[in-house]
Every structure is written in structure tokens, then in C-alpha cells.
Design brief:
two-stranded antiparallel sheet
């Protein structure tokens, strides 16, 4: 049962003539409520279900999350290059050049038909893992 269905569980047999109804998008039932105030939804539901906010969140994930993951990728390539004994500048250059391919792929992946939570987690978890590996390879933080 979703959050909206829980908030819409109201006496279904109550139909008051002349009172405005509240249409539940999760189902085809029409609930007649005594006051318009009881038709309001929790803010949490509104933020999760409003299509404009979902699109804004995906755009922010694509731009800022993609930038974060690409930046951490470049740092990781530099740390990997120095750990393997090659020039750090060359390793960072390779990371930057591969970042030009990685960033558009990340932007396209954010708009796949997956949940917002999955989109954000697929950006933040690899970023954290790459940052931790780069920190361990360079000896930073310990």
C-alpha cells in the first residue's frame, strides 16, 4: 500500500451530496470528504509524485551527479596512474579524455526508466567508491 493509498483510506461508504470529491490517482475510486482540507496530501507524497519535481531531480542528477562522478573518475585515474608508476599528468589526461565519453553516457543513463532513488544511488555510490579507492591508493587520509 502506497503512502497515498494510506492517506486516502477513508470511509468509502460516505457519500455526501454537494461536497467536493478527492480523486485518488492510485485507484479509480472517488472519495467524498466533508472538508476540502482533508483532501490535502502529505508534502512527502507531493515531492515524490509531482512530475515537474521528478524531472528537475533527474536534470540535477544528470548535471551535478554526472559532474561529480566524472570528476572523481579523473581523480581515480590520476591515483591509479601514479600507483602503477606512470606519470600522474598522463594518467589525469587519460582520465579527462575518457571523461568526455563518460559524462554523456551518465547523462543518458540518468533518464533511463528507473526510479529516482536508483538514479541517484547509481551516481553517488560509484562516486564514493572511486573516491575511497583513490584516497587509499594515494595514502590520503591515513
Amino acid at each position: 500500500m502506497t503512502l497515498f493509498e494510506i492517506s486516502c483510506v477513508i470511509d468509502l461508504k460516505r457519500e455526501v451530496p454537494g461536497v467536493h470529491g478527492c480523486m485518488c490517482p492510485a485507484s479509480s475510486h472517488r472519495f467524498y470528504l466533508p472538508t476540502p482540507m482533508s483532501c490535502r496530501l502529505p508534502i512527502r507524497f507531493f515531492l515524490l509524485r509531482h512530475s515537474g519535481l521528478r524531472l528537475l531531480s533527474r536534470i540535477m542528477a544528470a548535471v551535478f551527479g554526472g559532474y561529480l562522478l566524472t570528476s572523481v573518475w579523473i581523480v581515480w585515474c590520476g591515483a591509479l596512474g601514479s600507483a602503477l608508476g606512470s606519470s600522474r599528468a598522463e594518467a589525469i589526461l587519460v582520465g579527462m579524455q575518457s571523461g568526455f565519453v563518460l559524462y554523456p553516457v551518465i547523462i543518458a543513463a540518468v533518464f533511463l526508466p528507473i526510479s529516482l532513488r536508483s538514479a541517484w544511488l547509481c551516481l553517488l555510490l560509484p562516486s564514493a567508491a572511486l573516491a575511497a579507492m583513490a584516497a587509499c591508493m594515494t595514502g590520503w587520509g591515513g
